[in-house]
Amino acid sequence: MDVWLWILVLGVAAWAAHWGADQLLTPLKMLRKQWGLTASAGAAFLAIVTASPEVAVNVTSAARGVSDIGLGNLLGSNIISIPLMVTIAYFASRKRFKNNEKHQKHLDKNILVLNKRSISVLSLPYLGIIALVALLTLPKAWRGLQPVDGWIMLAAYAVFLAHAIIKGRKKGKNVEWDKKQIWLSVAGALAIAVGAFFIVKATENIVSTLNISEIVGGLFITGIMTTAPEIFKTWSVVKGGEVTAGTTSVIADNAVTMTVAFFPLALVTTPIEDFQLFWANLAFVGLMPLLYSLFVHQSKELHGFSRWQIFVFDAAYIVYLLIMVFFVLKLF
């Protein structure tokens, strides 16, 4: 098949996987209301579904013997997602919300407002997860992803989720379950599985045709494609007035990717072939939530991100691309 046809397959498969995730999202949203979870705690809970395309891609890549695609997807999606979603959320929030005078202050001061609780509930625990990944994979004696590492990371996600729920509980509400939505959820699960298979299959063929390594394909093809559909979800949630929920969900998604999506790659034992490429990418995976935490903590009366801080996020990703092109991959 022509490379352009595989690119088309990749795009359709990514859309199908995220459509499936959207169908699974409604039942979990209902559970969130029933259990009385706050926006930050709810984001950690809902991430089980919103990050499911990345998890499914890594399961498929491990099963097909191309775990480097999954490793690249794990790193690449976690680097681009925070600057991309924060930028999208900022522009989506530049509108007036009805009966919300407080939001007018955010507009006047050009701030993307966030609940400061998101630092303790989401971003700091996520930084802890990244530190744990570094500890398990960077030392020479432990280098690579091994089965024991996978079990440790699954336990880390259980702790992350429990911490988020305990820190963010309030009184629950009664909800009514819809049979139609349950069937749509089943269809969604199938769409995720089929979409993930074709994302990996398309990436395999594209990297083969372009003669690039699987991990690079995972970083810049699979990782970007699995993240891109989230743009529409973030835009729609923030534009609907749920600014904190729409912006913080990316942290929860990344936590799932670095733990649950880590597991299948570790289970089949994924070696680190290019150590410089791995540690450089892992460093930027950690830099993004570090900036997130520092900026929110630094903010005073109105917690969140100012315009110049949004620019720093985007500049950090551009610096990452330049380092990859000129110093790590040495394409020029």
From TrEMBL:
It holds the Pfam family Na_Ca_ex. Coiled coil: none annotated. GO terms for molecular function: calcium channel activity; calcium, potassium:sodium antiporter activity. It comes from the Bacteria. The keyword Membrane applies. Keywords: Membrane, Transmembrane, Transmembrane helix. The chain crosses the membrane at residues 6-25, 37-57, 69-92, 119-138, 150-166, 182-200, 212-232, 244-265, 277-296, 308-329. It is a multi-pass membrane protein. Its main location: membrane. Residues 7-165, 181-325 form the Sodium/calcium exchanger membrane region domain. It is found in: Membrane. GO terms for cellular component: plasma membrane. GO terms for biological process: intracellular calcium ion homeostasis. This is Ca2+/Na+ antiporter. It comes from Galbibacter orientalis DSM 19592.
